[in-house]
């Protein structure tokens, strides 16, 4: 029997191992329906925050004597919020499936043989902390870390792997892209003429000592 949305939210936040055990028979469709519900809540919260920010800007422009600009901003706020809501749904859904396929490569290499569907379920259910708490400052960082923990638990339970192998798969899936991005950024800086901060480089026009008699 498929758990309710509320039961899964509570379970994946506080007892992921037990909840993954109870969700082994869930289809990918069941997981996706759950994902869409909590993603819609997350996107709606962000959209409201965008609308509020625009309303504040509109009020500021009105106080500065720019009523037309304030009116335009007030109209654009809800429209931008709607666009933001739709884009969040599309981009997050796409990124979750790409992340799931990428993670499955490493799951397979460490011995996971229960199919890509189980990996996708682990990633989808693992998004629970980020989608429910990720919009809150500071707490969002904790939620992101807990998301990785829940994903590792899901990989372990759904693929019947050891804890070490499941953690290794998740760590490799996160660390390798991060290392590549850092390397690309470092290469970009190295190829920039004079570097990003030319005044700080050797021989550059950095700060000089005191001058005496015009020298």
Large-scale geometry: globular
Sheet having the most strands: none
User: How many extended strands?
Assistant: 0
Would you identify the regions where 5 or more consecutive residues have pLDDT less than 50?
none
What's the structural domain tally? 1
Mean pLDDT: 87
Q: Briefly note the structural class of the backbone.
A: mainly alpha
Order of helix and strand elements from N to C terminus: HHHHHHHH
Give me the number of helical elements. 8
Q: Report the sheet-strand fraction.
A: under 5%
Q: State the distance separating the first and last CA atoms.
A: 85 Å
How large is the radius of gyration? 24 Å
Helix content: over 70%
Sum up the structure in keywords.
mainly alpha
How does this model look, in words?
With 215 residues, this protein is mostly helical. It has one domain (5-193). It is 76% helix and 0% strand. The chain has 8 helices and no strands. The protein has helices at 5-14, 16-22, 28-63, 67-109, 116-126, 128-133, 139-159, 163-191. Helix 7 crosses helix 8 (163-191). The chain is globular and about 55 Å long. The termini are far apart.
